[in-house]
Amino acid sequence: MPLLPLSASAADVCAYTGGGRRRELVDQWQVGSPVADSIRAIATTAVRRGAMTDCPVDPGATSYVVVLTDATGTARTLALDPTVCGTLRAATGTPAVDTYLGLALPSVVRAVARSRP
Question: Which domain of life, per UniProt (predicted)?
Fold first, then answer.
């Protein structure tokens, strides 16, 4: 499932704490390539596709919204929610539609968190 037509050239990341409607923005940053493209790559491959699980809610975890942009100006949003089993959603397709991708492996969360310059 391609998130973007080309490699990601930039990423805008917002970090949130809390869960549900009580999320609070705690940090934000921007990164360029190759970091942005490494986020795109791992979010594409390190996911348990279509998986669902029953796990304990972790309201102390940090959640992320990542906007990836490629050289054509196409932007796609990833929502990574470790507070609820690491769910990963993305705006995919043309026109972009919110899509449940599955459960992100911990490596996806680490890649986003460590992307902060």
Answer: Bacteria
Q: What is the CA radius of gyration of the chain?
A: 13
DSSP β-bridge partners for residue 47: 104
pLDDT digits (tens, 9 = 90+) for 27-67: 999 999 999 999 999 998 888 886 666 777 788 899 999 99
Give pTM, 2 decimals.
0.89
- 91, two tokens: 């705006």
Q: d(Cα 42, Cα 88) in Å, to the nearest integer?
A: 12
Spatial contact of 37 and 9, defined as CB atoms under 8 Å apart: yes
